Amino acid sequence: MTFMSFSIREAVDDDARFLPAIERSAGQAFRSVPELAWVADDGVMSVDAHRACIATRTCWVAVDEQGRIAGFLSAQPCGQDLHILEMSVALDRQGRGLGRRLLSAAYDDARKLGLSGLTLTTFRTIPWNAPFYQKSGFYLLPSDMPDARLAAVLREEAQAGFPPGSRCAMRCDVVD
In this prediction, what percent of the chain has a pLDDT beyond 70? Predict the structure, then answer.
């Protein structure tokens, strides 16, 4: 078996065109969850949305030795937090620690910028969603949370067809 090494770097504008395909590949994992199989065919972040994250220097990519992108994390600053819009690793590259390394890059940058936390919304029970993030230092926010921004994101996700109660908001405090 050949092991490839990967590096994490800040995304550049030209990377944006590859990121929707990575997200589609990652989404194929949902085919193993019958009630969420539709997610595999759902829409992905647009190239322009990724470019907006790249422009604010809040997008990171995992690249292999040949410079091919294997995963990404796209985020946006929201007040004192860095909100993760999407993190995806190509299906055939999952399980190699790339997600943790992408989160680490986002965390390090948030700390350098003096932000107080990383936030995201995700599926509550899918192993590679909330349980993965909990192992990476995130905690579940109570469903009656006072954060209006995250509550609005969860409402939008419910309106988009996500099953009631299937999604949750999470936070990782950034400390010096």
Answer: 95
Measured in degrees and rounded to the nearest 5, phi and psi for residue 97 equal 85, 5
Structure tokens that stand for 141 in this block: 């926010």
Angle, CA of 36, 32 and 124, to the nearest 5° = 50
How far apart CA 141 and CA 145 sit, in angstroms, is 6
DSSP 74: E
Tokens of 72: 């990404």
Coil, strand, or helix at residue 71?
Answer: strand
Given a contact cutoff of 8 angstroms between Cβ atoms, the answer to whether 167 and 154 are in contact is yes
The residues facing 78 across adjacent strands are: 81
Query: What's the count of helices (H) and strands (E) in the chain, helices before strands?
Result: 5, 7
pLDDT digits (tens, 9 = 90+) for 77-132: 999 999 999 999 999 998 889 999 999 999 999 999 999 999 999 998 888 888 89
Residues 49 and 102: their CA atoms lie apart, in Å, by 18
| DSSP, residue by residue, 22-47 | HHHHHHGGGGGSGGGGGGGGS----H
pTM beyond 0.85: the answer is yes
